[in-house]
Amino acid sequence: MSNREELRLRDIETIFRPFHSRKLSLPSRVVMPPMTRGYAPGGIPTDEIAEYYKRRARQELGLIITEGTFIDEPSASPCTSYPNFFGGHALRGWKKVVQAVHTTDCKIVPQLWHVGMTRPFQGDSLPNPELPPIGPSGIDVETLQQTADPMSIAKIEEVIESFTRAAVSAKKLGFDGVEIHGAHGYLIDQFFWEETNRRTDIYGGDLVGRTRFACEIIHAIRREVGSRFPIIFRFSQWKNNHYDAKLARTPAELADFLHPLTEAGVDIFDCSTRRFWEPEFEGSSLNLAGWTKKLTGKPTISVGSVGLSEDFTHLFTNGPEAGSALHQLNSLVERMQAEEFDLIAVGRALIGDPAWAAKIHHGRENEIHHFSKDDLNELI
Ligand SMILES: Cc1cc2nc3c(=O)[nH]c(=O)nc-3n(C[C@H](O)[C@H](O)[C@H](O)COP(=O)(O)O)c2cc1C
Fold first, then answer.
1. Which protein residue has the closest C-alpha to ligand 1 atom 11?
2. Contact 232, 107 (CB under 8 A)
3. What pLDDT shows up at residue 329?
């Protein structure tokens, strides 16, 4: 490895600097993004889940965003082993998770979720199986065919109240903020996307009209949790089964989309992409988190395939293997040094190895246990 490359690798400290914003301070820039695991029988987070998060928290993470967890609208969840965020039993489980993570310096927020029309009509592990899925226009996200009734105004108001109750519970339990799941084709994103929102009332129409549902949720939460409690908002262009989908085709459209959400009270945007190094629009290298920070002035989280290359084993050794992993990590460091975005989420690599961040930080990459799909079969 050339001296120049070694020098750049020392800049890894960039990723482990503390982060300070108006409402949230973190001991490092590495974030665990929300990842559904399916280990919460009956929707109740177990002691094992608390330990799973703590094992990661103590290894130099700044923030954990929990796996998606359900608001108390009865068709929010597609699966009884995904955790709920309501009811004494589940909330006591979450309290233990918060306490476990707070034995370290790491902060933690729950990701509040409603799956909308992606919920199946039937299945052995479907909670409240008698209820159909709900969505802005009753459109199935995969086939884009209408399979249910459009949500009534009363139902929209009920869901807004349900998100708000969950945020209030998060604050009471001692979480450091909340993340609202507005990404990946689930309920809130079904309102954003023109293919799944064909409404002609105030919750539909142009891109700005389609943000109204999310904005009302953010406003309602803000009213109840006060001005100092951080609200993180996750969004994505891509949807499950529609990886090329776009909410915004140009920076101007992205600005139109983000402006009302920012005004409503979002503190940090979590910009979900599948590869952090991909430019979002032609003519600039900025990724989605880069554009979002530039357009809103808010801190942003970037994400997408960090640390997935097996080449990380050879990061600090000589030879051709070092190439792509080194390139990827240097590109991440360079973008963070340039303040393109503030925080970087590391998903699958952290499922594979709870100590991924500490190992990268301290030159122990040859000890990393690389993620494989088999790791999803247990809560290591
Ligand atoms: C097993 C698994 C479960 C996931 N569950 C969620 C989820 O509940 N909510 C969410 O917003 N994203 C979810 N994601 C997406 C991740 O948060 C993250 O954006 C994605 O894995 C890309 O990061 P990575 O390339 O570092 O893994 C999940 C990803 C995986 C692999």
1. 34
2. no
3. 86
